[in-house]
Amino acid sequence: MIYTQLFLTFFKIGLFSFGGGYAMLPLIQKEIVTNNSWLNLSQFVDVVAISQVTPGPIAINAATFVGYKMAGIFGSAAATLGVVTPSLIVVLSLTLLFLKYNTLDTVQAAFTGIRPAVVALIAAATWGIMPSSIQSVSSLAISVGAFIAIRRFHLDPIVTLLLAAGLGTVLYS
Questions:
Q1: Separation between Cα atoms, residue 43 and residue 149, nearest integer Å
Q2: pLDDT band at residue 23, thresholds of 50, 70 and 90?
Q3: Quick check: is 164 in a domain?
Q4: Are residues 69 and 25 in the same domain?
Q5: Using CA atoms, how far apart are residues 35 and 29, in angstroms rounded to an integer?
Q6: Which of 86, 101, 116 is the last residue of a domain?
Q7: Are residues 89 and 138 in the same domain?
Q8: What's the number of domains the chain is made of?
Q9: Separation between Cα atoms, residue 56 and residue 127, nearest integer Å
Q10: 48-72 burial by CB neighbour count: b if 16+ within 10 A, else e?
Q11: pLDDT tens digits along 81-96
């Protein structure tokens, strides 16, 4: 019974939460603290903190943690499956539609319009975080160096991040 309840609760969270982890928090809190009383508010705050410092999306981390607390490994699996299943269904449905209709001129035209918009979204995000990320000549040099390493020399992004971390440690410690 608890496995089904965990799955369905987190399925609802995954289905009705849009906008990323922080936008999901009120619904997660309502379901976990208020509706099901699985955690108290203090414990929920701990779940949010743990979810933020561990890799991965906050909803998946919270589901995994709450599921484990309530019913061990299988509870963790049920809650995690519940929160990812709605996205999986949507992505698979869109993939099937795309594969069926991707040769249509209208679909091709739509993607031709979408591609530059995606570039603009990435550029806007980059522009938005630039002031907080590049605050000195050294940070600008690391940024330009990383860009050149990836684009010109095809250096692996993970290696580039590790090198940047090393440079940051040397320059800013």
A1: 44
A2: confident
A3: yes
A4: yes
A5: 9
A6: 101
A7: no
A8: 2
A9: 24
A10: beebeeeeeebbbbbbbbbbbbbbe
A11: 999 999 999 999 999 9
- pLDDT for 17 beyond 80: no
Report if residue 45 sits inside a domain: yes
Q: Which domain holds residue 155?
A: 125-173
In a domain, 117, yes or no: no
Instruction: Please tell me whether residues 21 and 91 are part of one structural domain.
Output: yes
HSE, CB side, 13 Å, CA atoms: give it for residue 50: 13
pLDDT band at 129 (very low <50, low <70, confident <90, very high): confident
Task: For the chain, give the number of residues.
Answer: 173
pLDDT in tens, 41-69: 999 999 988 888 888 888 899 999 999 99
Name residues whose C-beta falls within 8 Å of residue 51's C-beta, 6 or more positions apart in sequence: 21, 58, 61, 62, 65
